[in-house]
């Protein structure tokens, strides 16, 4: 057994499972009976008298082991709840090598915590509902699975580790008026002793990890398309399944899906290997989606889209999430990481290649601009903390892995992939990936296996310059000093707190410079020096008329320019790419927080962007200025001054973009309108507020439901709640309860967080923790309150006062959800006293499963507090000098 991880005994390895679930209760206790028969290869075993499997919240009734001609019944079972294992005691010593068969009869529960085999509540569309569908007074239920990372063991006793791959036969006894789905197509239907039931038997799966096994049961219908590409001479059926009444909202995902399957088959030089692709909308879902092989499950807002009623931002989300999960069908499912420490191999690559596919389908969306403002900036934020972790991180047991499904594995992983692809060239990079997939198909692989394939394809020693990016914590800031005709560069670890100790700053990264220089921004060209490979270096032959480092932000690092150079780059902004401008603003903000720069430099730079017309640049500007306003919100005069600054900044652009959507305008223009109206309204722009309230009244009264474009609901609802208080709060709460739009509940929760009084904040939090708000959405409302500096303290007060009575009992069944709730709810403070109060509160509690989230909260709050204290005087001085403070 490897000493750095807690894994099952290595002498027993599964090769095939037959899973049979029956006597499933559709209501009542939601229990089920099951039999799992596992073929096991026993090798290198001393005499053994037991077998150890993963099992959690399952009751084993009986078991027997067949070795050769001998069959032995288990004598008893020992459960280890903490390690989520069951030991099958056989009662005698056995000496055996070869194939054995273990058969276990057990009982499980279809839980309501979005993990394992679970139930989701929903309100069906009006019309026919299959009579057997379980229901209570208010909701109906569908059943589905979520096994990643370590929850197959909640559904069946199994060997639940990613490198213990097996094939699976699945059969489910279900009511005849419902539909069962699994990874593979239906093989046959068999009779049942239960009246009105039959048993659905599925084809055998390829060899795969337990976390990719999936099934679902419900009152489903579907829309279907066929791939244009032929696979073994036939097109593959692609379907989007929903509960009855929603299937038409799956058409946008469907249209993307069949094109992406064909595109990836071509790009990866390996045909999609299963006979079907099913996408299933699940009404309660802990993540965005899950890549189960052949049966991909999604949160409804990540797969359903209604052209008439959905906010257009969800179009982008659906397209991307569909592509991300399809990427996993190869990268993760066909070839799986050897152990959870290399999760990034799955998630980092799928994130990058998901955007790669969307860029292919929608070149007009400026996908790489989106990537830079979303993925790269999110990765910077997460990795700037002292309590970050390397992309490849030691994982002792499977129970630790949920906390590394984070921005480091996904966003930093994908950012580093983009950096490498840019360096090697896209064609060479994808050839290396295709070679890697072919070499390790239906098996497991490591980071070094990927580097080897890429090294062979490129003729470069990839490991030599990429290893530190994967195995070391953090990233650098490159500080620039100017002299005539040359620049000096120094790399050091970037920490949000700005205080990296010598022992924390020993890594010397390979930093691709992307240095462009010339007599002007429009004529600049690539400099011959392509990388910084030591702590400090001097680059000669640089034209100080214009130079720029990290063109298009392809390198994963911050740049810290001298203040005068930052000003000049701001003046040259119209000659810079969208990615360049995003990087310029994002770096200026981050350097101000960390103390490498200062806030006046950021404010002066951003002031120039009043005439900006690109949504993605505005998104970065609004995020960073919003963060600065949040951090200084408790200092009254600065808060007022920054509000005036924001209002002056957004007014010209908001007035120019207007309220009306034009069918001929691009997707990004609509997104710009939504963002600017929200920002202008919340900053107090009179015309925007008046128009928002006029439209709100027409909409809420029912006089004109078309008064608010679907993409403007969040902006208008948020402005109304802020301006009108309780009356608008009640109206939008009612909208939440009665909306039939897929995205409506999320939008209402985001908007209700704009309340302005402690009383309404507490009322909203109580509403969030009622059964009216699904567990998957409880963080959404809390996040919006945390972003609202006026009532932010109420979030911590509510958590502290209701931890034992509401929060822990409600969320602790799924620690992913609990960690997300705490991190989003508490990381916006900028007061050391609050950080200390939070740390003291959780000190004596069992924090396993959310301890890393608490570290992030503590580090973030203290870094913000340090920044606020350091820059308070210079921000006040700048605001006074520029007449934002009288």
TrEMBL record:
Cofactor(s) this protein requires: Zn(2+)
EC numbers: 3.4.11.-
SUPFAM superfamilies: Leukotriene A4 hydrolase N-terminal domain, Metalloproteases ('zincins'), catalytic domain
Positions annotated as active site in the UniProt record: 325 (proton acceptor)
Residues covered by the Peptidase M1 membrane alanine aminopeptidase domain: 252-469
Keyword vocabulary terms for this entry: Aminopeptidase, Hydrolase, Metal-binding, Metalloprotease, Protease, Zinc
Keyword RNA-binding attached: no
InterPro entries the record matches: Aminopeptidase_N-like_N, Aminopeptidase_N-like_N_sf, ERAP1-like_C_dom, M1_APN-typ, Peptidase_M1, Peptidase_M1_aminopeptidases, Peptidase_M1_dom, Peptidase_M4/M1_CTD_sf
Cofactor note: Binds 1 zinc ion per subunit.
Keyword field contains Hydrolase: yes
Family label: Belongs to the peptidase M1 family.
Protein name: Aminopeptidase
Source lineage: Eukaryota, Fungi, Dikarya, Ascomycota, Pezizomycotina
């Amino acid at each position: 057994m490897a000493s750095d991880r807690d894994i099952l005994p290595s002498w027993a390895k599964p090769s095939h499972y037959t899973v049979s679930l029956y006597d499933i209760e559709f209501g009542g206790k939601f229990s089920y009976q099951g039999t799992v028969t596992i073929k096991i290869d026993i090798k290198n075993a001393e005499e053994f008298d037991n077998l150890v499997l993963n099992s959690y919240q399952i009751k084993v009734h009986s078991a027997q082991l067949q070795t050769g001609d001998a069959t032995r019944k288990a004598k008893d079972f020992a459960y280890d709840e903490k390690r989520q294992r069951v030991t099958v005691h056989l009662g005698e010593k056995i000496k055996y090598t070869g194939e054995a068969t273990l058969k276990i009869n057990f009982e499980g529960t279809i839980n309501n915590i979005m993990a394992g085999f679970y139930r989701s509540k929903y309100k069906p569309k009006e019309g026919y509902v299959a009579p057997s569908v379980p229901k209570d007074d208010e909701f109906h239920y569908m059943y589905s699975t979520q096994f990643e990372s370590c929850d197959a063991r909640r559904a069946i006793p199994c060997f639940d580790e990613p490198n213990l791959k097996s094939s699976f036969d699945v059969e489910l006894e279900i009511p005849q008026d419902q539909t069962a789905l699994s990874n593979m197509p239906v093989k046959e239907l068999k009779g049942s002793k239960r009246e009105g039931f039959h048993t659905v038997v599925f084809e055998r799966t390829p060899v795969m990890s337990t976390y990719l096994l999936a099934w679902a049961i419900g009152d489903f219908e579907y829309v279907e398309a066929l791939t244009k590409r032929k696979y073994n001479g036939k097109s593959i059926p692609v379907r989007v399944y929903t509960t009855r009444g929603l299937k038409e909202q799956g058409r946008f995902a469907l249209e993307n899906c069949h094109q992406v399957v064909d595109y990836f088959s071509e790009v990866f030089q390996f045909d999609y290997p299963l006979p079907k692709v099913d996408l299933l909308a699940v009404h309660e879902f802990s993540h965005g989606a899950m890549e189960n092989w052949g049966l991909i499950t999604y949160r409804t807002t990540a797969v359903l889209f209604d052209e008439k009623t959905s906010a257009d931002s969800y179009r982008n989300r659906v397209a991307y999430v569909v592509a991300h999960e399809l990427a996993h069908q190869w990268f993760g499912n066909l070839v799986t990481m050897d152990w959870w420490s290399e999760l990034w191999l799955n998630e980092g690559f799928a994130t990058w290649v998901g955007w790669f596919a969307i860029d292919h389908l929608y070149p007009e969306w400026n996908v790489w601009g989106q990537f830079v403002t979303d993925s790269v900036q999110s990765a910077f934020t997460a990795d700037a903390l002292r309590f970050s972790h390397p992309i490849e991180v030691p994982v002792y047991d499977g129970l630790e892995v949920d906390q590394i499904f984070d921005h480091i594995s996904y966003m930093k992983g994908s950012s580093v992939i983009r950096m490498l692809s840019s360096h090697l060239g896209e064609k060479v990079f994808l050839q290396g990936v295709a070679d890697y997939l072919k070499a390790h198909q239906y098996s497991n692989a490591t980071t070094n296996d990927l580097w080897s394939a890429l090294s062979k394809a490129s003729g470069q020693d990839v490991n030599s310059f990429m290893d530190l990016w994967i195995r070391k914590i953090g990233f650098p800031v490159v500080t620039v000093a100017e002299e005539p005709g040359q620049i000096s560069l120094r790399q050091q670890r970037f920490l949000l707190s700005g205080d990296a100790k010598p022992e924390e700053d020993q890594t010397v990264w390979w930093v691709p410079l992307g240095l462009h220089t010339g007599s002007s921004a429009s004529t600049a060209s690539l400099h011959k020096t392509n990388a910084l490979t030591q702590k400090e270096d001097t680059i000669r032959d640089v034209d100080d008329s214009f130079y720029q480092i990290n063109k298009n932000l392809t390198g994963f690092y911050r740049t810290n320019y001298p203040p005068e150079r930052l000003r000049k780059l701001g003046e040259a902004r119209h000659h810079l790419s969208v990615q360049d401008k995003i990087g310029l603003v994002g770096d200026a903000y981050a350097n101000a927080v960390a103390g490498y720069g200062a806030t006046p430099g950021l404010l002066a730079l951003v002031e120039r962007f009043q005439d900006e017309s690109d949504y993605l640049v505005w998104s970065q500007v609004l995020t960073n200025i919003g963060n600065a306003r949040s951090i200084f919100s408790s200092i009254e005069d600065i808060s007022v001054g920054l509000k005036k600054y924001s209002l002056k900044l957004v007014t010209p652009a908001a007035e120019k973009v207007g309220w009306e959507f034009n069918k001929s305008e691009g997707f990004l223009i609509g997104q710009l309108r939504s963002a600017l109206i929200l920002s202008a309204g919340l900053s107090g722009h009179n015309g925007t507020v008046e128009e928002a309230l006029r439209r709100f009244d027409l909409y809420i009264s029912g006089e004109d439901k078309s008064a608010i474009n679907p993409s403007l609901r969040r902006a208008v609802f948020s402005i109304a709640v802020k301006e009108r208080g309780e009356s608008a709060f009640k109206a939008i709460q009612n909208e939440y309860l009665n909306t039939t739009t897929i995205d409506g509940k999320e939008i209402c929760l985001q908007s209700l967080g704009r309340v302005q009084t402690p009383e309404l904040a507490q009322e909203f939090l109580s509403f969030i923790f009622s059964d009216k708000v699904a567990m998957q959405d409880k963080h959404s409302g809390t996040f919006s309150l945390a972003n609202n500096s006026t009532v932010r303290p109420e979030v911590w007060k509510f958590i502290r006062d209701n931890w034992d009575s509401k929060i822990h009992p409600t969320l602790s069944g799924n620690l992913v959800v609990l960690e997300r709730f705490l991190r989003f709810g508490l990381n916006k403070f900028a007061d050391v006293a609050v950080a200390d109060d939070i740390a003291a509160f959780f000190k004596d509690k069992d924090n396993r499963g959310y301890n890393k989230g608490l570290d992030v909260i503590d580090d973030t709050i203290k870094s913000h507090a340090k920044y606020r204290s350091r820059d308070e005087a210079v921000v006040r001085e700048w605001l006074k000098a520029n007449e934002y403070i009288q």
